[in-house]
# Entry
Amino acid sequence: MSKYTVDIIIAACEDYISSNLSHREICQKYGIYYNDKNHNSMLNKWIRRYRAQGESAFLKEKGNKKYTSQQKKAIVEEYLDGKGSYKDIAAKY
# Structure
């Protein structure tokens, strides 16, 4: 079971995107762990996923997602064409 509910994750992402609050302030507001040493939090990953897929990024699916060879090729080509970092493309798919 996730430590944070889908509602908290979505609210934190939307709040960050629509406000001028920092990552640290959003994390404090929603009780999300924030690592002061390297200024990192789960919020970074969530925001990347939210921007790529919206709320559907956090809906649970059973099992791993299956990709056809054509889909895999398209994903690799997207990365090689410079259409995003590997983290951005991973969040998208």
About this structure: The beta strands are 34-35, 40-41.
